[in-house]
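The following block was generated as part of the benchmark described in Methods. Ligand: iron/sulfur cluster.
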Amino acid sequence: MSGSVRVFAQYDRDFDEVCDVVVVGSGPGGAVVARELAAAGKDVVLLEEGPPFTPDDFELDGSLSMARTMREGGLRTTRGTSMTTMQANALGGGSLVNSAICVRAPEFTLDGWCDEFELTHSTRADLDPHYQAVEDFLGIGPTPDAVQGPRNLLFRDACDALGYSSEPMPRNVVGCRGSGECFTGCRTRAKKSMDISYVPAAVADGARVYTSVQVQRLLTRGSRVWGVAGQVVRPFTGELLHRFRIQARIVVLAAGCMATPVLLQRSDDFANGSGQVGENLQFHPGVAAMGVFAEETHPQFGATQGYQSLEFVRDGYKLETLWAPPGVFAVRLPGLGLELKKNLAMIPNAAIWDAIATCNRSKGRVRARRRGLDPALTWRLDPKDLTVLVEGLWRLAEMFFAARATRVLPGVHGLPEELCSLDDARRIQTREFRETDFTLAGNHVFSTTRMHGDGRFGVVDEDGRCHETDNLYIADTGVLPRSPSVNPMLTLMAIAHRTSQHIAARL
Amino acid sequence: MLLWLALLALIAIGFRRFLVGYPAPPVGVTALAAREYETARAAAEVIYPKGGPIDASGDTAHVAMHSDRFVGAQTRSNRILMALLFIAVEHATLVFPARGPRGWRRFSSLSPDQQLAYLQGWQQSELAPRRLVFMSLRAILTMGYFADAEVLGALGLRPREILSPVLEVDLLWPAVGQHPETIRFTRADVTGPGTSTPLGPSGSVHRDYR
Ligand SMILES: Cc1cc2nc3c(=O)[nH]c(=O)nc-3n(C[C@H](O)[C@H](O)[C@H](O)COP(=O)(O)OP(=O)(O)OC[C@H]3O[C@@H](n4cnc5c(N)ncnc54)[C@H](O)[C@@H]3O)c2cc1C
Ligand code: SF4
């Protein structure tokens, strides 16, 4: 059986559909559920607000790419502690424009989840078969040396010099050419983002995919949900047009950790007797620094994020290499005028590395605004988590000098614009920082509809089913009870895989 | 009566300060008002003056033009925020006057040296919100600067030509906004995965950036 994909140009009137399962959102969570259920012979409708992109649609210019692929033009920001956070608006969700990093959550982290959130089957051993299934499907493997490029290999050298563990980044990529363009879309099609992996597989198995449709509310009767309703939306302009309703036996919300709570709140606060919907918002805030080397690094070439170190994961942070559209990271280089140009001229000899922190103490919330579906976000960085970020920054500086960088540009207010030696870098350890000294970004987001064994303290159970209703499931990073300590996509897909098996078994 | 006169004078001064005397923006500018365009242009020229290791300036790299496209691609609420941002930078000379004669004039009317010192004041301010405003302005302008082929070329960062392989999915949907009838591929065109030869500095430059 083969399904179908509908795009914006094909809608000319209101429409209604009926299916077994409707999945809202085609990111890593929704795409896995849609495909697995379609493969199990269920009648699946997958709804996605964003359009599908072809390579011709990718904007190489970072800022215009962000404006086209990201919600709120890529400029979404938290209140409280100000931090930018990006959520995609495209078929494939974040996977279209992310770095494809796929790391299993460490055993200690999942054990911690089980203890704290009263979970009975979410240990690493429980999740391993699901991790494996996703890894096999996507061909996840370590990034080969041939496409690392100097800036990634220097990271490995630094770890070797300091005796820190490191490894080539495991990614859902096959045949990477090291274009460093993961954030604007993979023109080589090597990245197995959902739009070219799980979604077409779902279609091949009979799923009907509707793109450019915005779900606006759940259709509920008593404590059950019987479908979703919304409107067709014109790509890039947000103009709302024809109305639709999808009637389903089971509804799976996978609209992302920001959008799913807003949808529930907009639906008369459905499934929120616990008061937990939209609470517990967590991020992995990241700090990045630029090291400058005597030799050219040709930083544009090489896998976008090709190497990582998990050495300090137990201390609450993870170290990675990073590349982004130059206009995006150049914003943080110091100076103005000719002074700034001098700093920009170092880019051909530079490497950028980052530290992302677990930040389990720092929490916030997502609330629906008065109009529209964009969320109002509040979040505050806990002072203890700030010290973890500072420690991460120090490690980056230490590593840069271990790899023989001639200087490090930390991009942090209150530090010298350039650190020229390891001794110089020790100022990072001695200075008192405020959260506003850092330019933070956090694109890993979790826990706004968290999983908990006790329905009073969480929104869904371990199978992803809402505690308060029998036929509503959630399958996005909102269900992670807290940080997975590493990049979240693979863990989300493993959990979504488990959720789909549970739904298939009961239909 | 006196109060009315004072009010009228205030309105006239406000009108003059906020709206009058801005040059018309070039043809093709659609999202930025003349005054916003001028603020963006002046700031870009200060942040990225001509000369130095990358010769291109804000003007020659058409940064303000790019800012217009960037603002135009934003949501309504973002556009409002950006309009406020331009107003803040242009007129905060009333609160944080630039050093030198008549430092309270609007930003785009200051001398280049005053403009530089004024923006440095924002960049290095101890007030975090002030730094944030500057960072936002600089983000918009920097992204514009780095959209320019000459700037990217000076740093060896021009995107390379990549021939995207044709996959089965290319039979499923067209380019954004198009009807599926415009899908130009058939099953016979599907190439499967492309080459995995690593890209490098010797690869040919993308046609739009030559
Ligand atoms: C730049 C960037 C780089 C990243 N790099 C990595 C990485 O390398 N590895 C990693 O593990 N994580 C990475 N992440 C995070 C990762 O992409 C996300 O955690 C992941 O995409 C979350 O998946 P999701 O299914 O929960 O939500 P999303 O991917 O956000 O998908 C939700 C989908 O729902 C759609 N949607 C939302 N509202 C509606 C609605 N009302 N109606 C219909 N559809 C709707 C959205 O358009 C979207 O497609 C990165 C994120 C970003 C932004
Ligand atoms: S580095 Fe380039 S080729 Fe490799 S996965 Fe990312 S975008 Fe694709």
